[in-house]
Amino acid sequence: MQLFTCENRTTLKERLYQDDCQTVMHLSLQKGQEIPEHHGGDAEVTVVPVRGSIIFTASGQSEHLVPGKLVHLNAKELHSVRAEEDSDVILVKSACGDIVRGC
Asked: Which InterPro entries does the record associate with it (predicted)?
């Protein structure tokens, strides 16, 4: 078992873990802060809010995400993010192997 702690709420991105197939990032967004449209390259991306509230837009659809809701993106799927309030988000990029789906 490995334990990781999100410690920096003033830096936009903090890498928590990385191996050959997966990267786990902590994003800290201030109210009103936006990340313009981009994609995660060849990786599938899962976005998990852990504090606050964000508007997540992908494929022309916007979703209000709060802790308890998450979104999963296919590789190269364009998306953008806007913080409705100060927010922390965990971002998981998976670039190889089978992905476990569902709860």
From this structure: RmlC-like_jellyroll, RmlC_Cupin_sf
**Per-residue model confidence as pLDDT tens digits over 40-83:** 888 999 999 999 999 999 988 999 999 999 999 999 999 999 99
Please report, for residues 16, 51, 60, the alpha-carbon distance to residue 27 in angstroms, rounded to integers and kept in the order given. Answer: 10, 11, 23
- pTM to 2 decimals? 0.82
Place of tokens 């109210």: 31
Tally the domains of the chain: 1
Residue 60 belongs to domain spanning = 24-76
